[in-house]
Amino acid sequence: MLNGKKIIVVIPAYNAAKTIEDTYHTIPLGFVDEIILVDDFSNDATFEIAKDNLLIKNCIKLDKNVGYGGNQKKCYQMALALKADIILMLHGDYQYDPRLIPAMVSMIAYDVYDVVLGSRIIGNRTIVGKMPRYKYVSNRILTAFQNLMLNTKLSEYHTGLRAYKSSCLEAIPFEKNSDNFIFDNQILLQLINKKFHIGEVSCPIKYFNEASSISFKNSLVYGIGILRITFTYLMHRWGVRKEKIFS
Fold first, then answer.
1. Is residue 165 part of a domain?
2. Which residues span the domain enclosing 158?
3. pLDDT by position in tens, the chain (length 247)
4. Residue 211 lies in a domain
5. Long-range contacts made by residues 21-25, C-beta under 8 angstroms, separation at least 24?
């Protein structure tokens, strides 16, 4: 615990057999009370490695693939059931640096922020980490668009390293969100709608063959989804049309 807060790391994993051990062994375990891994019906040995090699107690394999968002829903439900005070979501593909966990959870444990994002943009580390150019350009365009429309000043909305005060997740209907990649953006819009305080820390990123990544085609679909959900949220905020996910 940190400042009396129970900290749980959740790892939504899919075909992460080649990276999950590096991810796990880089986690500062002294700052973490429990780890949850949810394997989204992988085609490789992700689950067996996590359960048998790494001895992760709270480790399950879903009986069908439910998607990135659906996986996170299960992760958060399990963490809340275990009475977490702070929940940190970490990808199992070793793209994000787990050594940032102490900094991120400390900012929540001592009530500086309600939510903390690991930003790939702050510190200009995206070039060093070899983020594909189309991803970087689309990230900047979509972030600028959402900051303008939402009157916010986040450096990015698309990171996969996030820490939440559990009361934030309890206050929003995240179960109603998409089961796909747009889930991450929906949850931020829900938190912004509830006026929770969101902070950011600079997060180095690594792109390599074994790390998961959205294809160019799926990135286009994702970008269109960002535009759609932003306007949906604005319609809700302006009272034009009420949306259940922002209730």
1. yes
2. 7-246
3. 899 999 999 999 999 999 999 999 999 999 999 999 999 999 999 999 999 999 999 999 999 999 999 999 999 999 999 999 999 999 999 999 999 999 999 999 999 999 999 999 987 656 555 677 888 889 999 999 999 999 999 999 999 999 999 999 999 999 999 999 999 999 999 999 999 999 999 998 888 776 666 667 778 899 999 999 999 999 999 999 999 999 8
4. yes
5. 21/49, 21/53, 21/54, 22/94, 23/90, 23/91, 23/92, 23/93, 23/94, 23/98, 24/50, 24/54, 24/56
DSSP the chain: -BTTB-EEEEEEESS-TTTHHHHHHHS-GGG-SEEEEEE-S-SSSHHHIIIIIS--SEEEE-SS--HHHHHHHHHHHHHHHTT-SEEEE--TTS-B-GGGHHHHHHHHHTTS-SEEEEESSTTS-TTTTT--HHHHHHHHHHHHHHHHHHT---S-S--S-EEEEHHHHHTS-GGGS-SSTTHHHHHHHHHHHTT--EEEEE--B---TTS----HHHHHHHHHHHHHHHHHHHHHHTTSS--GGG-
Number of folded domains that form the chain: 1
The verdict on residue 61 lying in a domain is yes
Half-sphere exposure of 28 (CA within 13 A, CB side): 16
Provide the CATH number for the domain around residue 112: 3.90.550.10
Residue 2 lies in a domain: no
